[in-house]
Amino acid sequence: MLRKFNLLYVIVIFSFLLLAQNFLVLRAVREMNGDARVVNYSGLVRGATQRLVKLEISHYPNDELLATLEEYLYGLAGRENNYDIVYMAYGPFQASISDLLIIWDELKTAIYRYRDGLISGESLLEISERHFHKADEATHNAEYGSEGKVGNTELLISAGMAVISVIVIIVAIMMYLLRRSEQRQMEILQEKNRQLETAILEATEANRAKSIFLSNMSHDIRTPLNGIIGMTTIAMRNLSNSARLSDCLHKIEKSSRLLQSLVNDVLDMSKIESGKFFLNSAEIFLPEFTQGLIDIIGGQARAKKQELRVSDAEIEHKHIIGDPLRLNQLFINILSNSVKFTPEGGIIGLVVKEMPCGREGFASFEFSCYDTGVGISKEFLQHIFESFSREEDSRIDKIEGSGLGLSITKRIVDMMGGNIQVESEKNKGTNITVTLDFPVSDSDAVPSEKNQSGASMPGTGLRLDGVRVLMAEDNELNTEIAVEMLSSAGIVLDCASHGKEAVEMFNNAAPSTYAMILMDMQMPVMTGCQAAAAIRNLPRPDAAVIPIIAMTANAFEEDIREVLAAGMNAHVSKPVNFETLKTVMKKFLPAVELETAAELNAEPAPAAPDSLLEAIAPYGVNTSAGLSRLAGNRKVYENILLKFPKDKNFETLSNAIRLEDFNTALKAAHSLRGITANLSMETLAEMFFQLEQALKQENYQEALGIFDRAKALHESLTEIMGRY
User: Structure pTM?
Assistant: First the structure.
């Protein structure tokens, strides 16, 4: 097969060469035809000059012949081409034409002077003779140039014959070699057959594994479904019995969450295998992240009377950059398994340590998850990360699960560039160690002060008094948040509602009016990248040097590369931590003095018994993070929260979903994701993120389900905020 391919390859190459040679021959013939026209027109110039002068001397001026003769000359010189005259690049010919044009100008002048009676006929004849002789010289030079191309054409034809001969010889040799290689080809074919048989066996095994998986999933999905259906029936019969109704709803919720977990595992694995599983990038505060795991896993452990031990004391860098959603999913998968497979009274533990890291700007962490559960056999350890796999053990057969959790966990660790190791012994427990490197966030460099209760006060840091900044942001609520916080640091903020307006405001302002530009990415009329590129191309001295900082919820590596390629200087992820933003700004404003501003961050007043923040906290709003993001200013945070129900993006999203206008829905979901993240509405922000991803992947059925859940939560929050 290989030799046949080589033979074909050789034939194709030489055929191509032959075609190229034929093309060159045809072009040469075409050029010779063009040269013949050049020779012809050169002769016409020679003859027409004599006729023109004779007519002038006979007092029969012919302006049409005069114009035609000039067009011939210009055509031969390549200036004009009204007669399809091919340009002859032959040097001596063009030199003759150049001289001829000079004499032609003299001859034209002489003709007009003769008509006016200013020179004699003898003078006119003398100039025309020089023109005639030069035209005769040009004709001879054209003939010489054309004869040279005839010789080249003969060489090309000879080369073509040589190519044909070579092809015949090589094809004959290759045919001989092909016959000798038939036996080898048969051996290769037999090896391919053996490989095919192996692939069939592997596919059969994969189908068997998937059949087992589907059987397990069928059982696991039916279990919560039966619970939901059964409890719904009982609830319908006990609408007047509030205690019984509440019990049914609690069990329905529990079964629904189990069903959702199973479906999410299957969907995640499907995304991973189809290459649609991506990592985001945002700031993570590790103590807050660890506390979130405690909140989630602690309830599960308490329900089984287990002890949960968590240690994160050995951490130097607490602010890192990573994907909080996938990092959370990773450790919830591991720790949930520990809870499920550890008997009552057992121990579940997580130890987070910072390890030495040789990468500048990065920190390395070791996460050790351990339990005193049933353990894993040595035989099954080698299959622990395989999809659809579960160890056969009568003690765990009734425990729900898809067998995908650890497989997904391994994929996430791999995507993060980390390492995962499992140590386990039957009946003694399991220890899973995950090692990951993360970029260190600039927030670790923000100075803090101590209040009087000895704790670090949030939000103390930079004053930027009098610094004038242009900000482009299309969402009114995000704009208001930025104005509140940046103005409190002394910044004078001018706001544009889209990229084009930002370009116009910058261009209309005097040079050096603005010290910096903050640029959102996804805006109407002109995107952030388009606006940044347009500003960089403006013909004014500050356009090339003004710092431009991107602020966007799109924080993938490719997004960061895109903003830098557009001419921006830095990238800050949404939701924006304003102390982090001010620290980034300080890097590009070296003249600004660093000073603490404790007066801007007065300690929040004690919460009222029935405050807004207490009311919304159970609905997935991380009020502590929200206050921290807004420098502890409770009043500002509550004022902005109360404006959330007035935002029109959810109405836009709802109408777009109803009309199946999924492009508009995608834009609205992206805006809502940024708004809710800025307000620390974490559950709602996560829903809008999932909705955005589903719409991007054109998974509209999944998108509709996510929208329904988001709508219910949005309505609950809106109803609560309406009371204040």
Answer: 0.43
